[in-house]
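Supplementary Text 2. Reproducibility record for the structural model of the 351-residue chain.

All settings were left at their defaults, and a single model was retained for analysis rather than an ensemble. We include the record here because the model underlies the residue-level annotations in Supplementary Table 4.
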Amino acid sequence: MGVERRRLSWLAGPLLVLVTGVVIAAFAEVTARVAWHLRTDFVAPERPEEWRDLPVIKGLFEASKANVRGLYNGTLYETNSAGFVGPNRLRRRTRGTYRIAVVGDSVTMGSGVLYEDTYSARLEATADSSQQYAGRKAEVLNFGLAGLSARWVVRRTEALGLQYNPDLIVYGYTLNDIEGNHYRRSVTRRYVNPTYYFDSQWYTLRFLGPWWNAAWGRLTSPAGSYRFELEDNYFRNPPAWAEIETQFDRLSRIAERRGICVVLLIHTHLYALGALHPFMPEYAAVAEAGRERGFHVVETYPYFKDLTAGDLWVNPRDPHPNARGHEIFFEALQDGLREMPKACWAANSQS
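Retained model, structure tokens:
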């Protein structure tokens, strides 16, 4: 009898733990199911009536054509007679004008936001109140184009941007600008697709799966994550990194020949902000490479670190910066220009 009691006593502890675990899991699953069906999905803002019959702009080549008017990433997209976003500009600058050429990829271009909400347009709109321009009219030309790597950003600068004889070049650098012929892709759907777990029969997994992937991806660099892919290409793939250095060298030579400055605006990747933001080593490498070539570097992460990444996305499935995100990039750029050497505010040698 004593032996049996001791056996039952020994089994009571594990059994209690098991039952408690089952109850907690069942409660979590029921709660997750209720929350899932009550959740409100993102509702895209209603499009203005005049947009309804506009064509959808797809791909780099269509987006770079002259006089395009359509929808790109759900928002009105227009190019001028030279094939870049914004109003038409005279190639020959008028006297008393300080011209800034902003170059880059889809973030610079303003994928998913109206032109007037881009950081380049905001910079031009507020220039009259800035003392740096010393009474000159400021023109900010946005040559950004979705899909460009660093090589093609610089080529577009040479082929198109320099025709407008800028006094300053601002390169809005995004971490994926390193993509090119030597770039190694390794991301898997599990880590980069936010809907990967949405088909699971367990609703708890639908909620916790994406959270776990995000947390694990921030704390470590698991194979298949975007963090792993960027670390691999920036620090373990010399030919890929050499391409960035080559393009920075080309941009440096352009600036030297023209007698102008280059501002390297490093875009914060709106994947995850806060203390566990995973891309600080990559920002540091890009910033160092820029400074070695005499660029004036503006690091934007300090402006974003205390914010919630998802609040700054175009929509829950697209981490391109929304209007608020561009406003923060503008604030960082404006502060960076205030700290730029005085020599950079002089008219270029080919004016």
